[in-house]
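Forum: Protein Structure Q&A
Topic: Joint prediction for protein chains with partners

I've read a bunch of threads here and the consensus seems to be that you should model interacting components together rather than docking separate models afterwards. I'd like to see that in practice. Below is the full input, 784 residues plus whatever partners are listed. Could one of the regulars post the assembled result?
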Amino acid sequence: MLNEHYLSMLSSKDIIFDIFAYATKRRAEIGAENVFDFSLGNPSVPSPSSVQEAVSTILSQTDPVELHSYSPAGGIPFVRKAVAEDLNRRYGSHYGPENIFMTSGAAAALAHALRAVTQPGDTVLTFAPCFSEYQPYVNGAGCRLSVVPPDTDTLQINFEETEKLFTENVACVLINSPNNPSGIVYSEETITRLAALLREKSEEYGHTVYLITDEPYRDIIFEGTGSPFISNYYDHTLMCYSYSKSLSLPGERIGYVAVNPRAESAECIFSLFAQISRETGHNGAPAIWQRVAALCAGQTADLSVYEKNSSILYDALTSYGYSIVRPGGTFYMFPRSPGPDAGAFCRRAMENDLMLVPGDGFGCPGHFRIAYCVPTEMVIRSLPVFQKMIRP
Amino acid sequence: MLNEHYLSMLSSKDIIFDIFAYATKRRAEIGAENVFDFSLGNPSVPSPSSVQEAVSTILSQTDPVELHSYSPAGGIPFVRKAVAEDLNRRYGSHYGPENIFMTSGAAAALAHALRAVTQPGDTVLTFAPCFSEYQPYVNGAGCRLSVVPPDTDTLQINFEETEKLFTENVACVLINSPNNPSGIVYSEETITRLAALLREKSEEYGHTVYLITDEPYRDIIFEGTGSPFISNYYDHTLMCYSYSKSLSLPGERIGYVAVNPRAESAECIFSLFAQISRETGHNGAPAIWQRVAALCAGQTADLSVYEKNSSILYDALTSYGYSIVRPGGTFYMFPRSPGPDAGAFCRRAMENDLMLVPGDGFGCPGHFRIAYCVPTEMVIRSLPVFQKMIRP
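Posted by a regular:
Agreed with the consensus. Here's the joint model:
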C-alpha cells in the first residue's frame, strides 16, 4: 500500500538526470575531457575563502553546545538580523529580523512560501520558461500550477497570455529572475508592469495576490544588466533565496524567505512558516551554515567565470547561426533549437558527447538549455561541436 | 487569503515553548542559577572532539567544489555505505547503501517515511505517551493519528487497548523507543509481541502494516537495560534516526531513514523518498554533516551525565514519594503528578521556578516530563523544590 501519488511521479522520467547519467558513463568510456557536459546547474567555482575562515572562526570561538543547539523557528536571531541589514544596505529595503525566515535552501523556502499564501486547490501562476521543479513544489502545496506561454522573442513575461490565464483562483504568482533556464533578468519595465497587474487583479478579485520570487541567482548579474530588487516594486512579495549559487554551497542547504514588511499580514505569514515547518519535517536550517551566512553576508564566490563563459558561448553560437536571447545573469543560456524538435536535437548532441537539456520540461519547446557552470577551457573546446550541430 | 489550516494551528498554544519563554524571563530576573529548567530536550553535553576533527579534516582534504556540491537524492554514496556498515556491525542487520536515505534530522526522516507508506486519509497508530509533534507530522502526510491509551503501570505498549483501535485503515504503526517523554525502552517482550500483532493484522487485512520507528535516543541506553534492535524483529520496518542526541548536533539537521532490506517493496520505498523530497522542499541533508556522520559512525558524545542525572532524580524523587517508572534511556523521566491535574501541578512548580511539562500533550494526563539534559549540579540543587512540591 505504497503512496499512489508518489508512485505516479516515478513514471515521469527525470530527463536531466538521464542525460547526466549518460554523461557519467561516457566520461568513464572516453575520458572526462571528451565529454561536454552542460546538463547540470552545479556551481563550478569554489566558495570564497571567507566561508572556510568563517567555519574555522565559528568552530573555535563558539561554545560547542550553543553552536550546535536547536535554532528557534525561523533561525538564529543575530543571523536573521545580519541578513536583513545586508539586504537593506544593498537594496534600500526595510526588512527586520522578524521578516527573515532561515530555511534549508530555496526549495525549502518555496515550500514554506507556497503553503503560507494558498489554500489547497488554488492556482499558482508562473511564466515559461520556468524551472522544471515548480510542478512538484506546487503539487506539494496541494495547488495547481498554471504556466503562461513564453514570449520567445524576449523571454520576458508574455503579458497578453498572462491576462488570459489570470483567474480569481490565482492565489499567488511565482517568478524566477534571473531565470533558470534562460539566464534572462526581468527588466524594470517587466517588473513594473507585473506589479501593476497584480495590484489590479487583487482589487478586481477582492483578495491580495501574493508574489513569490525565487531568486537564487540574484547575485549572478552580468555587466550592463539592470537588476531591479523585485520586492521594492510590489509590497506583497515573499522573496526566496539560497546561498547555493552565490557562495557555492548547494549541498549545504542554506537559504531564507524574506517577507516584505509591508505585505498584507506579514507578521502572520511569518508565524505560519513555523507551523508549515512542523508538518513538512523542516526543523530549521543547519546552524553552522546560518552562522556562516551571517558572517559572509553580501559576499560571493568569484562568479566572473560565468559571465566569461556566457560571452564566449553567445558570441560563438550566434556567429554559427543560433538564435539566442542574450542572458543577463545566471549560468544558463536558452537558444532556439535549429529544428522545432528540441528533444531530437539534444539526442543528436548527446551522440556527439555534447550534453544539453531540451526546453520542453521548462514549458518552452523548441529551445535547449546550456548550463555553462563549467571550466572555460571546456566551453572553448565544445564550440566546434555546437558549430557542427547546427547543420541538420 | 492565508492558509486556513496553518492558521488554525496557531490557536493551539505550544505549552513547552511558553514554559521555556517563562524560564528565560525568570533567568533574567533572578539569575540562571535560581531557575530549574527541565522543559526542553536540548542536549547539554558537547559533541565529541572527533566531530570537530572530522570537520577540520573534511575542510582541509576535500576539494571545496566537490565538498559543497549537491548530493544525489538519498545522500552521498560513501556516507550511506558507512552508515549501513556501522549498523550491520552493531546490530547484525543487513542494510546496504541502497537502504539508507540521508535526511535533515529525524523530523525529515519521519516526513519521508510517513508519506511513503500511507495514502491520505489512512490511520497512523501510535502509543501514549508519545512525542507531542506526532500530530503535525501525521497531519502533514494527510493522515489521521490514532493514539493508544497508555499502560501507566509500565509505560510499555498497552496491547489490550491496541486491539480495540487497530482497524483496516491502519497503514502503519509509529513507535518511539527509547521514548520521549517517558525514558522507557520497549522490552524485547513488547517488541516481539508488537511484531506478532503486526504480522497478524497484515494477514487479516490483506495489506502489509509497516512499522515506523523513531529512534533518535537509540544510543542513550542505561546500564542493565536491554535494547532490542527493533528492525530485526519485524521485516517491514522503516527506522528513522537523528544524530541530534548521540553526537549533540540538534541544530545541524542530520539523520536518515533506514529501510529494512526485507521490507515489502523496500527498493520502491527508497525511490518514493526522492519524490517526497521534491514535493516537500527537502533537497538532501547538509553535505558537510553527511560526511561527519560517515567519519564518526558509531561514535557518541560523552552521554554518561544523562544516566547520572537519571539515577539521582529517580532515587531522590521516589524517596519523596513520587511514583515513577524507572527510565531505561534518553534524558527524560515521566513521574505521576501528585494530583490528577498535571497542568495545575506544573503551574505550581513554575511558581517555584521549577520548569516541568504536563503529560497531557503527550497523550498521558496525570504525569509530567522532566528533561534532565542539564548540569548535574542543577539537578542536585533542584531536589528540595521537588520535595516541597509533593506536599499539596
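Chain B touches chain A through 75 residues (CB under 8 Å).
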